[in-house]
């Protein structure tokens, strides 16, 4: 019989640095769910295990430390003391470690730095302090760690949290043994039901007077100027995060109540009408909670970070040619890394163009409009999110032998462009016109979703006595009436959209494209123009797109269709991908069921049966994401960033919602079959 095994998890100092401050991790030092585990036999001693860690990570045994957990008064678990040399000779399963008298004059504290200008909280490291000394004694060390000047005034705060008292029973306390390389760590401080207390530390009182002991967290920052406009202190920043998390927690609780109610209904066989009534009521409450969260998000100001020219030079290695990814009339674009995040940095060709784009992107946010992260006024630069698949022009012509876009991706992109234009044109009191809608100004993300960019056409084109730059490439997409009147309207964007629709449909160059498509329709030979590399494009759908594209490219504006009532009503239904063959009852002829995008796996593009959440925060079909891992991929299929780990967590809430939708459709289908049996005919 094989010896019993257990899982031991190990964390290193770089694990702190890679997690704290990223993806909303502000309160914890480390989350065990994201840490690599080791399966070891119960008979293995701690000393022997440290030898295995040296083989794995290359860290010498003498540099490793093993710590005991202890429960604090605020009901969280923190490190208490290191194991003695004798204790390290015991096995990992040893049930008791006797209390010993140790020197409590020194305390190990963890340091986090808050930047009020960037609203950023990150981990710096740990530090031993003498409890009888004063915080003022370590100020030079803190300034050095943060890169502050020697005279920089700083403020110190102690941060404490409260959590569920029953999360770890007393009987299990001796099992919490932390195996740590180079730096000790705390288990998750809070899952998230926090009561956060952030108190200023008197730098002239001793650490013991302030109640600082081993395992405590000290946050510090520069002293901000008076009337700071965003978050003047770490306390105000943490309170802001808590306020938003509280709304998310309410939503989570409501969703759990819905799942619990369904289980109770199945167990006790409640009457269907009664259970549906209660379920609908909870859904209504859930929808209200979602609406409140969305309203809160809409009310909050979109923070745009300010960067210095030095920041941009470091990100692009002084704007070297190898970092340049684009050169247009709008400016030079570079690829760079800022704060461990890949970004696109565009140096605007003029100050007026820079101001134009900032004024639009600062106010307006939409899933299909490029997201601005920050600006650098000194260099007239805009910092955007990085989209790895380049622009739509490159994807249409398959630059660098990239695979052609599928017909479904093309219809999806058409729908997304239409949605973004509707958003811009609905602005009050004056509609926003993009004015330079071309494939090169449409960027594609890792999941082949599209985003509009380069909002500065009026500054480039409409100055008195000027001629639009790069006219040859731009002319096929330009509204013919603009060429004669010099006036841009929303229907100018509609014309450009029509040309893009025909290009995606045929893959042909834009010049005289509408005439060629019109002739093909008249001669019933459209199938000869459809781009075969896109796959088996449904002919009925292709013909609908050809007709709507031609109507958009009418020479006179008054003949072009209304974007909302004519174009969107045709395009939106075409963007719905047919569900997988494993769910045939969803393919009813009536088409009255709409599968939410969240129910579809981003990899297989099929409705998920076993949704699993990966460490990038996205949910995938279990078989698809495991196959992705089996092929040696360690990057996220959605963001292209290296995944923290390859662990998967079942998304039970989403699974329940999918089953609910399928159950409703199955019931509708069953009723339809009954009508068929009674009437002797039916439509499948």
UniProtKB/TrEMBL annotation:
GO molecular function per UniProt: ATP binding; protein kinase activity; ubiquitin protein ligase activity
Limits of the U-box domain: 594-668
Pathway assigned to this chain's UniProt record: Protein modification; protein ubiquitination
Membrane-spanning ranges: none
Record domain Protein kinase: where: 319-586
Superkingdom of origin: Eukaryota
Official protein name in the record: RING-type E3 ubiquitin transferase
Organism of derivation: Oryza punctata
């Amino acid at each position: 019989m094989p010896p019993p095994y257990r899982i031991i998890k190990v964390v290193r100092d770089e694990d702190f640095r890679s997690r704290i401050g990223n993806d909303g991790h502000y309160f914890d030092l480390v989350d065990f769910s994201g840490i690599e585990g080791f399966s070891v036999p119960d008979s293995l001693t701690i000393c022997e295990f440290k030898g295995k860690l040296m083989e794995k990570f290359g860290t010498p045994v003498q540099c490793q430390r093993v710590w005991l957990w202890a429960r604090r008064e605020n009901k969280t678990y923190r490190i208490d003391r290191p194991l003695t040399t004798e204790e390290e000779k015991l096995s990992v399963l040893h049930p008791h470690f006797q209390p010993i008298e140790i020197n409590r004059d020194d305390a190990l504290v963890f340091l986090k730095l808050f930047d009020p200008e960037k609203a950023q909280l990150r981990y710096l490291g740990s530090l031993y302090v003498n409890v009888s000394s004063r915080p003022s004694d370590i100020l030079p060390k803190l300034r050095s760690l943060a890169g502050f000047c020697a005279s920089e005034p700083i403020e110190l705060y102690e941060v404490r949290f409260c959590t569920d008292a029953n999360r770890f029973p007393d009987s299990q306390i001796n099992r919490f043994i932390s195996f740590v390389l180079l730096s000790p760590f705390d288990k998750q401080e809070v899952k998230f039901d926090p009561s956060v207390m952030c108190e200023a530390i008197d730098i002239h009182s001793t650490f013991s007077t302030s109640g600082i002991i081993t395992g405590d967290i000290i946050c510090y920052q520069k002293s901000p100027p008076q009337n700071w406009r965003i978050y003047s202190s770490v306390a105000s920043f943490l309170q802001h995060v808590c306020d938003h998390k509280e709304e998310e927690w309410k939503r989570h609780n409501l969703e759990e109540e819905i799942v619990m109610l369904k289980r109770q209904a199945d167990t006790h066989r409640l009457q269907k009408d009664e259970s549906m009534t209660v379920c609908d009521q909870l859904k209504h409450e859930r929808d209200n909670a979602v609406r409140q969260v969305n309203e809160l998000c809409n009310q909050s100001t979109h923070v745009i970070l300010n960067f210095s020219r030095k920041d941009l030079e470091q990100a692009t290695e002084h704007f070297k040619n190898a970092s340049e990814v684009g050169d247009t009339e709008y400016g030079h674009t570079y690829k760079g890394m800022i704060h461990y995040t890949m970004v696109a940095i565009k140096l605007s060709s003029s100050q007026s163009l820079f101001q134009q784009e900032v004024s639009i992107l600062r106010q307006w946010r939409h899933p299909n409009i490029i997201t601005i992260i920050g600006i650098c006024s000194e260099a007239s630069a805009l910092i955007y999110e990085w989209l790895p698949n380049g622009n739509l022009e490159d994807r249409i012509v398959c630059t660098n032998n990239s695979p052609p876009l599928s017909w479904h991706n093309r219809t999806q992109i058409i729908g997304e462009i239409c949605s973004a234009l509707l958003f811009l044109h609905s602005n009050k009191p004056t509609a926003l016109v993009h004015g330079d809608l071309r494939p090169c100004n449409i960027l594609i993300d890792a999941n082949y979703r599209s985003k509009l960019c380069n909002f500065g056409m009026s500054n480039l084109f409409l100055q008195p006595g000027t001629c639009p730059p790069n006219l040859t490439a731009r002319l096929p997409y330009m509204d013919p009436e603009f060429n004669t009147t010099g006036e841009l309207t929303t229907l100018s964007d509609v014309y450009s959209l029509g040309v893009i629709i025909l290009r995606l449909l045929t893959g042909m160059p834009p010049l005289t494209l509408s005439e060629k498509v019109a002739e093909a329709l008249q001669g019933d030979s459209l199938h000869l123009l459809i781009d075969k590399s896109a796959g088996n494009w449904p002919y009925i759908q292709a013909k609908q797109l050809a007709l709507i594209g031609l109507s958009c490219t009418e020479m006179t504006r008054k003949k072009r269709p209304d974007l909302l009532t004519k174009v969107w009503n045709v395009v939106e239904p075409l963007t719905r991908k047919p569900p997988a063959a494993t769910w045939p009852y969803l393919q009813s002829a009536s088409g009255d069921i709409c599968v939410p995008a969240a129910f579809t796996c981003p990899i297989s593009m099929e409705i998920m049966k076993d949704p699993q959440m990966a460490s990038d925060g996205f949910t995938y079909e279990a078989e698809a994401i495991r196959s992705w891992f089996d092929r040696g991929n360690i990057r996220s299929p959605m963001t292209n960033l290296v995944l923290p780990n390859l662990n998967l967590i079942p998304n039970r809430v989403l699974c329940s919602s999918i089953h609910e939708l399928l159950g409703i459709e199955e019931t509708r289908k069953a009723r339809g079959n009954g009508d068929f049996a009674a009437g002797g005919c039916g439509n499948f």
